[in-house]
Amino acid sequence: MSTPRFQRGNFLVSDLDRALSFYCDILGFELAFSKDSEPDSYSYDVFEIPTDRKLRFAVLNSPTQPRVMALTEVSGELDTPSFPRRGAIVVEIPEIDEVVTKSTAAGLKVYEEDHLITQDEREGREVGIVDYDGNLVVIYYITSHPEK
After folding, report:
1. May I ask the CATH architecture of the domain 9-76+87-144?
2. Which of 26, 49, 108, 123 is the most buried (most CB within 10 A)?
């Protein structure tokens, strides 16, 4: 059996430019490319999007990982997310305070910071942020490593 390789996460958004202001300007991703989706895009099938809605697609790089995140813009309104949330992305970001400040200023929902303790006893900080379309992003940073 071959080894799986994670390619990227993908969130649906209602306004690609607004989403890019969060993912690039606040979180620090870089736009690799964007394009209009083809009328027969597989996204219509797997996301169960009506084919009368136009799609645009953007792929984002992190400074260390190419094409690690994607955003698919769906024309028109998106349904309100259901709760409990069914997914999130988790991103390591050293500049947590800066991201929280910018996210709050942008009017995004920012959860109260939590003290992170990993399974291998590293400690850090973590904060959940909800993007403009209800997608959850959890940012974290490890601040201490146990002595081994």
Report:
1. Roll (3.10)
2. 26
